[in-house]
Specification:
It is built from 9 helices and 14 strands.
Length: 304
């Protein structure tokens, strides 16, 4: 797995300026913000991230074989970028990650309008890019997965913002982090709703950068389409009686990240954008990323 760690300021949303960011070093203490402030903003279905300091990454430390180049510079594709920050206990913890990211060797300055920062009257550069569905931000209160601090004989992240974890001694840390990431992805793919998972009896809330699902839109979808699965027509009440009354899951036919970043987006249309699904069909829809269209799952059912 191509991966590296990027230590950034601890912010809640990384979707613009936030007061009182945590642990950003001298620059953030003086200026009140860090250049990673847009790392989880959505622009046309993509996220563009800043690597501290100054968007400089040693691509050869990540992979020597797959480096390419375009008009923006040298880059690597398919990289797992782990963002760490200072946690509540002062230790480094995982704040979120980009999966299958493109990582540029140096800063890209293409004046993307959503990265214009009025306080400095300039555009904030970036060197990371990924599909918004592959950008996951851990809820600020639940950033508990600690990354060890570097010691002579122990794997860990040192004082530099970037850590490549590319030595033999780092293999265990890499493996543990990848298991953690895979667990989050597996849970998030099961439902469009905010998900919970358990680790050693400690509940962590996992949420993506994406806009919180509208309870009103969900309820309107059920009002319009009922509580019967839109793919297999399963009815929870018919099977479980009163226990299943008024129960159904609701799925975004177009992922919420893509939907809300579409030019001209004015809100979710429950009739057009949402569909009620039973738990089984909902899981099958998310067996692929991007998710299957409900009609594709219907076709699979008919063919079996």
């Amino acid at each position: 797995m191509k991966m590296f760690f990027d230590h950034i300021t601890n912010m809640k949303n990384y979707n613009g300026f936030e007061a009182n960011p945590i642990g950003g070093g001298r620059y953030v203490d003086q200026e009140g913000y860090g250049h990673e402030l847009y790392n989880f903003s959505i622009d046309n279905g993509k996220c563009y991230g800043y690597t501290a300091p100054l968007c400089k990454v040693n691509l050869e430390r990540i992979s020597k074989d797959d480096i390419s180049e375009d008009t923006s510079g040298r880059y690597l594709d398919g990289v797992l970028v782990i963002f760490t920050c200072e946690g509540k206990n002062g230790k480094r913890v995982i704040a979120g990650f980009y999966k299958n990211a493109r990582v540029y060797e140096e800063a890209v300055d293409d004046d993307r309008s959503f990265r214009f920062y009025e306080k400095e009257n300039r555009y904030i550069c970036y060197n990371l890019k990924c599909n918004s569905d592959n950008a996951v931000l851990i809820s600020q209160d639940d950033r508990n997965f600690e990354i060890p601090y570097s010691k002579t004989s122990v794997s860990g992240h040192g004082q530099h913002n970037i850590w490549y974890a590319d030595k033999d001694i780092d293999s265990s840390t890499r493996s543990n982090v990848m298991q953690y990431v895979d667990g989050i992805i597996a849970e998030s793919e099961l439902s469009d709703e905010r998900k919970y998972f358990y680790n050693e009896n400690k509940k962590r809330v996992v949420s993506t950068h994406q806009i919180a699902r509208s309870r009103e839109a969900r309820d309107k979808c059920i009002e319009l389409k009922g509580c019967r699965c839109g793919i297999c027509e399963f009815d929870f009440k018919r099977t479980y009686g009163d226990l299943g009354k008024d129960y159904i899951e609701v799925h975004h036919i177009t992922s919420i990240g893509t939907l809300t970043s579409t030019i001209g987006y004015e809100g979710t249309d429950p009739e057009k954008d949402l569909i009620p699904l039973c738990s089984n069909c909902h899981s099958m829809v998310h067996r692929r990323n991007p998710a299957y269209h409900p009609d594709e799952i219907k076709a699979i059912l008919k063919a079996t």
